[in-house]
Amino acid sequence: MSDAFAGQVAVVTGASRGIGREIARALGQEGVRIVVNYAHQQAAAEAVVAQLQEAGTEAMAIRADVSQPGEASALIHAATERFGRLDILVNNAGITRDGLLLRMKDEDWYDVLHTDLSSAFFCLRAAARPMIRQRYGRVINVASVAGVMGNAGQTNYAAAKAGMIGLTKAAARELADRGITVNAVAPGFIETEMTEELTPEQRERAASQIPVRALGKVSDVARAVVFLADPQQAYVTGQVLHVDGGLAM
Questions:
Q1: In what order do the strands lie in the sheet containing 59-63?
Q2: Mean pLDDT by 10-residue block, N- to C-terminus, for the chain (249 residues)?
Q3: pLDDT value at residue 1
Q4: Considering only CA atoms, which of 126, 143, 139 is closest in space to residue 229?
Q5: Contact assessment for residue 16 and residue 36, using Cβ atoms and an 8 Å cutoff
Q6: Cβ 66 vs Cβ 13: under 8 Å
Q7: Which region holds residue 123: left if phi is over 0, alpha if psi is between -120 and 50, else beta?
Q8: Domain segments of the chain: what residues?
Q9: pLDDT digit string, tens, across residues 126-143
Q10: What integer pLDDT is reported at residue 206 of this predicted model?
Q11: By the 8 A CB rule, do 18 and 95 touch?
């Protein structure tokens, strides 16, 4: 546990599983009080909270569909009401609705854009207010290598994640003189529940594209987030930290 994070509060969206869950754990290990946001998986979110509490971390779960502006604002308000402050916002909520461009349904386009990109804007807009009052904050957006390189069959997801990178840079310029940094991490192929569905052949094919010849772990992404959330990283803002084994070089 680091004294640097003592007393801080973080909201992690989409924290009931995968990368978001590991980010919540990693920040909790640093002594940060955690708000575990979820939209549908209440039992999984409560399990994350229980694990955090068992490890000595103060934590709570809050349901909110952050793709809706009112619910995103309510999430931030509830967090600040409970803990009295907000120091770290991790915009991790996201979905995929893969499909080829010519076959992609309108709803699959809109659902991914709203969940993956609009949610980050809504949460950041709401969180900026208490952070500005504090003249301190750390915002980390979980983008993707797909937003940098593109990916066939993921025009919606790649567009959303590319938009998140643009959001990161623009917000970083707006908020820099208020003591708030805004950065992004761009994971590549990471071992999550979704990659468990890949066949051995698909996993081997994915790994062969990566210079380090291996898929990453959720802990790799979480450690990058902790680095960017560190109070001592006041001079790092508007950056995209690739956690991809060299894939996007």
A1: 59-63, 33-38, 9-12, 88-91, 137-142, 180-187, 240-243
A2: 86 96 97 96 96 96 97 98 97 93 95 97 98 98 96 94 98 98 96 76 86 94 98 97 94
A3: 60
A4: 139
A5: yes
A6: yes
A7: alpha
A8: 3-189+217-242
A9: 999 999 999 999 999 999
A10: 83
A11: no
Q: Is 157 a catalytic residue?
A: yes
Give alpha helix (H) positions in the chain.
18-29, 42-54, 69-83, 106-112, 119-134, 146-149, 155-175, 200-208, 218-229
CATH of 3-189+217-242, one of 3.20.20.70, 3.20.20.80, 3.30.420.140, 3.40.50.720: 3.40.50.720
**Structure tokens, 236:** 């790092």
Which run of H or of E encompasses 40?
Answer: none
Show the tokens assigned to 224: 């990058």
Q: Which residues contact 217 (CB under 8 A, 6 or more apart)?
A: 190, 191
Spacing of C-alpha 249 from chain mean position: 22
41 Ramachandran zone, left/alpha/beta (phi>0; psi -120 to 50): beta
Give residue 232's identity as a one-letter amino acid code: Q
pLDDT of residue 203: 82
Dihedral (CA of 48, 51, 57, 61) sign: positive
Q: What is the per-residue DSSP string for 41-72?
A: -HHHHHHHHHHHHHTT--EEEEE--TTSHHHH
Question: Under a CB-based contact definition with an 8 Å cutoff, are residues 185 and 225 in contact?
Answer: yes
